[in-house]
Structure formats: structure tokens, C-alpha cells
Design brief:
Elements (H helix, E strand, L loop, with lengths): L2 E6 L23 H14 L4 E5 L9 H17 L4 E4 L7 H8 L3 E3 L7 E5 L2 E6 L16 H6 L7 E6 L1 E2 L8 E2 L1 H5 L5 E5 L13 E3 L16 E8 L2 E7 L17
Helix pairs in contact: 1-2
């Protein structure tokens, strides 16, 4: 039986989209909180097997008090529907998310403290690593626990990797990792957070960015949202973007030469 996962990239609870106030729009109604609420509704509607969060769930440690209520309510609603929520911490919430996870029992933080961890999520093995601090200059693949986590894989279970990292960026303070190094590991699909522009995961990319759940400024153009990742078995994984973001930025070229 296939597992259907709703996977969310950079959420950034506590942040509001730029420049909306001067157009008479309410940033709170069009930002991460509203998008998170829509993601919860979508997970319920589609009877998702689980909801996965790929880091930067909270924008900043100072936002943890505001973010806590929104995150807790969504997780509680999903838990009541029998939908587990699992996430990793990113560079923005390497401090805040572990604190919130400790207060929300139904939320599972994977790879806490920068140590790789693998869990069985129904018929899927989920491998993950969390930022232990706001900056992490070594590759996360050099962190402890990776060999043990991979060695414990179930032989017939497909394996997904959930990671917040800077892909093919050379020297970076945000967990730089080479795509070739990820591809060499026995993982069927890597779902990445950090960069806000989504990759074409629906085209079968084995390694790719989920993108931000909602466009946070005018540079984040096009549709944003969550991904429905359906796991049929090892190597048989489909991904479809669900445009849940209540706000969409676009650039329109207007010919004013005759004015």
C-alpha cells in the first residue's frame, strides 16, 4: 500500500511577507500562518500518512513564542486525525525548534543535536539530521550517527532523506553538502529545505529543494506550497506540488514605450 506524505519546506512562522501593508493587504492573512493552516487542512483532506517539515519552521528564536501557538494547534489537530508530524531543524530554528518540540509531545524532531537518526514511518524509513546551532560549516554527512542509521534500514522499505542544507555551495555556514555525496548514499529520495525556490521534484529528481511554503518577498515568484510525496516502494516515488500559499508574487513586463 502506498504511503502519501505531505512535505513542507521552509515555513518561517513569525515572519510576514514584505511590502503588503502599503497595498492595503494584511500580511498576517497572507503569510506563513495562513499557509500552515491550509497545509493542515490539506493533510486532513487527503488523509496523509504523515506531515514532514524540512526545517526553518520558525523564522527566528525571538519568534518562538508567537510560533508556538500556531505550530501546537496545527500539530494537535493532525494528531487528533492520526497524522504524525516529523521535522528537522534548519539554520533559522536550530535553537527554537528543539525548544518547541520539547513542549509539543506529538511533534517528532528528527536528528536532534546534529546527530543522524532514522525512524520507521509506516512502510517508509525516514532519515534526518537537524542543525545543532544557527551555523554549521562542516558537511552534515560528517556528523555522527549516519552509518548506524543507514545500517538499521529495513531491507524492503523505501528510504527518504529529510535535510536542511546548502547544496553544492562550496564553503557555506549553512551545512554545505555535495549532491554527488548525497546521491552515493542508499536513499531513494532527498527532500531538502533551505532554498526558497522549489526544484522540479515532480519530474523525478532524486535530490531537490521543496521551496518555501509561501512566497515571503517579491523575489519568490510563482506558485509555492507543499508537496504530496507518494511512496509506492523502493525507487517508486511520485511528487506533486500542492499550491497552498495564499499569496503569489509575479513579475509582469509592461510596454510603456508609447506613453
Amino acid at each position: 500500500m502506498a504511503s502519501s506524505l505531505l512535505v513542507v519546506g521552509d515555513l518561517h512562522l513569525g515572519r510576514r511577507p514584505d511590502d503588503l501593508g502599503r497595498f492595503g493587504l494584511d500580511p498576517g492573512a497572507l503569510g506563513p500562518v495562513a499557509a500552515w493552516e491550509q497545509a493542515v487542512v490539506e493533510a486532513e483532506r487527503s488523509a496523509a500518512s504523515a506531515v514532514l517539515l524540512a526545517g526553518d519552521v520558525v523564522d527566528d528564536v525571538a519568534d518562538r513564542f508567537e510560533a508556538y501557538g500556531h505550530l501546537e494547534r496545527g500539530v494537535a489537530r493532525l494528531a487528533a486525525a492520526g497524522i504524525p508530524v516529523v521535522g528537522v531543524a534548519g539554520n533559522h530554528d536550530g535553537v527554537a525548534l528543539p525548544r518547541l518540540a520539547a513542549r509539543i509531545p506529538a511533534f517528532r524532531l528528527l536528528g536532534a543535536g546534529g546527530r543522524w537518526e532514522r525512524i520507521a514511518l509506516g512502510d517508509v524509513d525516514l532519515l534526518g539530521w537537524s542543525f545543532p546551532a544557527p551555523h554549521h560549516r562542516p558537511s552534515p554527512l560528517e556528523s555522527p550517527g549516519l552509518d548506524e542509521a543507514l545500517a538499521g534500514r529495513r531491507p524492503d522499505a523505501p528510504c527518504l532523506g529529510l535535510l536542511h542544507a546548502d547544496l553544492d555551495a562550496g564553503a557555506s555556514p549553512y551545512a554545505p553538502v555535495a549532491s554527488s555525496a548525497l546521491a552515493a548514499l542508499p536513499v531513494d529520495r532527498w527532500l531538502l529545505g533551505h532554498r526558497h525556490r522549489p526544484d522540479a521534484l515532480g519530474d523525478g529528481l532524486a535530490i531537490g529543494y521543496l521551496g518555501s511554503l509561501v512566497g515571503l518577498d517579491r523575489s519568490e515568484t510563482g506558485p509555492h506550497g507543499a508537496w504530496r510525496v507518494t511512496v509506492h516502494g523502493p525507487g517508486r516515488i511520485d511528487a506533486v506540488r500542492i499550491p497552498l500559499g495564499p499569496l503569489r508574487w509575479e513579475v509582469v513586463d509592461v510596454d510603456v514605450s508609447g506613453i
